[in-house]
Amino acid sequence: MLSFYSCLKHPEIEQNKQGTCLKCGMRLKAIKKEGKKEDDHSSHNL
């Protein structure tokens, strides 16, 4: 599962750690998305 932090008012603002929105100063909310982890090597052929 991939996760990042985003502003609820400005969804284009994404960061990989907690912080505040660069546009409005609101605290960023953790967003979780289903998907492969970046380090998942299951698709590699051996």
Description of the molecule:
The protein has a domain at 2-33. The chain has strands spanning 2-6, 14-15, 29-33. Strands 2-1-3 form a three-stranded antiparallel beta sheet, with no helix packed on it. The protein is elongated. The mean pLDDT is 85. It has 46 residues and is mainly beta. Helix content is 0%, strand content 26%.
Q: What fraction strand?
A: 25-35%
**What general outline do the C-alpha atoms trace?**
elongated
Number of helices: 0
Average of per-residue pLDDT values: 85
Helix-strand topology string: EEE
Spans where pLDDT lies below 50 across 5 or more residues: none
Number of strands: 3
What are the SSEs and their pairings?
Layout: E1 2-6, E2 14-15, E3 29-33
Antiparallel strand pairs: 1-2, 1-3
In short:
The chain is 0% helix and 26% strand. It is an all-beta fold and 46 residues long.
Key features of this structure:
46 residues; mainly beta; three-stranded antiparallel sheet; 3 strands; elongated
